[in-house]
Specification:
By secondary structure, the protein is mainly alpha-helical. It has five helices and no strands. The termini are far apart.
């Protein structure tokens, strides 16, 4: 496993994905709080569901944009560091979920 530290440009890219996801809460949270949607998707705790959804979206967007920006895929180490940074941002994301809707 390659353990490359995210450089400043890659960290900025990840932070932008996190910021974009927090802004997306205004649209997403009301959709997933809809009882019909919750029933159809079979989940009860919308905050946990949305946090998981957004976390996947952030990492997916980060890895896609990483390839576009750096002309190579992120290493396993870079992805793991991105996930670690994302986990440390979970409080901010969760607060955005609760403040919306």
């Amino acid at each position: 496993m390659s353990r490359m530290v995210l450089d400043e440009a890659a960290r900025e890219l990840l932070e932008q994905q996190i910021d974009d996801a927090v802004q997306l809460m205004v649209t997403l949270v009301p959709i997933y709080r809809n009882p019909d949607v919750k029933s159809e998707l079979h989940f009860e705790d919308e905050a946990t569901f949305i946090l998981g959804f957004i976390s996947g979206d952030i990492i997916g967007s980060f890895t896609t944009k990483f390839i576009s920006q750096f002309k190579r895929p992120a290493t396993t180490g870079e992805i793991l560091q991105a996930i670690t940074i994302l986990i440390s941002s979970a409080r901010e994301i969760r607060e955005a979920i609760f403040k919306t809707g």
